[in-house]
Write a structure and sequence with these properties.
Aminopeptidase; binds coenzyme A; alpha+beta; two-stranded antiparallel ribbon
């Protein structure tokens, strides 16, 4: 079924027929079929089951499906941000049996043309990649920043006890004490739009939240403010470390498994560790079940925080050092 995309016809019908693919905008009823081809995605940490319904409602987003002989074999989502100048590319996946045949490339091209037709002001494509990028990739991408990824797993109840044993409460009171400060939405909005935070704390003046890289602009903050996020800094007047923690959500890795995402910005290890503890404390207080906690951070902080996780918190690292690249390119 071809869905109304706002276009009179596909951007490039030739491309469609060449690859033998049919494209459509995803609807609610496609969910089961999409999940059926997404079984092994992101090591069981796929966010799409949680986000799918909301994505379909977002005014600036299109979720595009590619079908072969009527069957969904690929998905890509494009979301217009940065006051309409940038398209954020997310969720890309191709059914395992169709990989390595150029499907992703064709779908990405189709999406670019769709965005160009619907949003002519968009100039740039931005995305995060956590696979190994080589010189060929950097011919097409400009690197915005690299973030280390620290992925640990634990039972929420065990972590809660461990934090109590260690006396690590990670309090969030006021900016006079050394405790991290959890920001009210209005304060977070103001602070994350300030020139000082962008210059001194954010990597390349970019807010990366749960894989999504945003420029600090009022329109992007409006998107971020609708999400369930804890915004934290070391000092609300003069921050040097800031972090965003997405509220835990279920992931398909197993029953009663949750994903906890923390984006940590800044270079001070002690302050970063305090904010990490404060986020853990807040969520393990009420959460029951298994947690995959993924923290994105400045690469030099990875090793000492990995040692802290293993040695002090006694938690298991799921992987050794990995990183993600936040990249962009001109819209082809
Ligand atoms: C990654 C994946 C989508 C590639 O699908 P594919 O049809 O085998 O890929 P193709 O043969 O068309 O070629 C891959 C192209 O997509 C690019 N690509 C790979 N991952 C990408 C991503 N996340 N975003 C944008 N482009 C990506 C590659 O750089 C390559 O581009 P090139 O032709 O300019 O070199 C597929 O292996 C998959 O579904 N993997 C599991 C899910 C996943 O890891 N998704 C990436 C999310 S970060």
């Amino acid at each position: 079924m071809k869905i109304e995309t706002g276009l009179q016809c596909p951007p490039n019908p030739e491309m469609e027929s060449q690859a033998g693919l049919q494209f459509s905008v995803a609807i609610e009823d496609d969910f089961e079929e999409i999940m059926a081809m997404s079984q092994d995605i992101y090591g069981g940490l796929d966010y799409l089951p949680t986000r799918y319904q909301a994505w379909l409602q977002e005014p600036n987003r299109i979720v595009v499906l590619a079908r072969k002989q009527g069957k969904v074999i690929a998905l890509e989502s494009v979301c217009v941000i940065d006051d309409g100048e940038t398209v954020l590319v997310e969720g890309l996946r191709v059914a395992p049996s169709e990989r390595g045949k150029g499907v992703a490339g064709v779908l990405l091209k189709f999406c670019s043309q769709l965005v160009k037709a619907k949003h002519p002001d968009v100039k740039v494509t931005r995305l995060t990649r956590d696979d190994r990028l080589g010189p060929k990739d950097f011919q097409k991408y400009r690197l915005i920043t690299k973030q280390a990824i620290l992925l640990v797993r634990f039972r929420s109840e065990d972590m809660k006890l461990r934090l109590q044993e260690l006396g690590l409460q990670g309090g969030c009171q006021d900016s006079v004490s050394q405790d991290p400060v959890r920001l009210d939405p209005g304060v977070a909005h103001h602070l994350f739009l300030s020139a000082g935070l962008a210059r001194d704390v954010l990597p390349n003046a970019t807010i990366v939240q749960d894989w999504q890289p945003f420029k600090p602009l009022p329109s992007n903050m409006a998107i971020l403010m609708k999400k369930d996020i804890d915004w934290m800094v070391d000092d609300a007047q003069s921050p040097s470390v800031a972090s965003l923690c997405t509220f835990p959500f279920r992931v398909p890795i197993g029953d009663n498994w949750y994903y906890l995402n923390i984006d940590m910005f800044g270079k001070d290890l002690t302050k970063a560790r305090r904010q990490f503890i404060a986020h853990l404390h807040r969520h393990t207080d009420t959460l029951r079940g298994h947690v995959m906690c993924q923290m994105f951070l400045d690469p030099p902080l990875w090793q000492p925080l990995a040692d802290f996780c293993r040695g002090t918190l006694g938690v298991e690292l799921v992987k050794e050092y990995t990183e993600q690249c936040v990249v962009e390119s001109d819209l082809a």
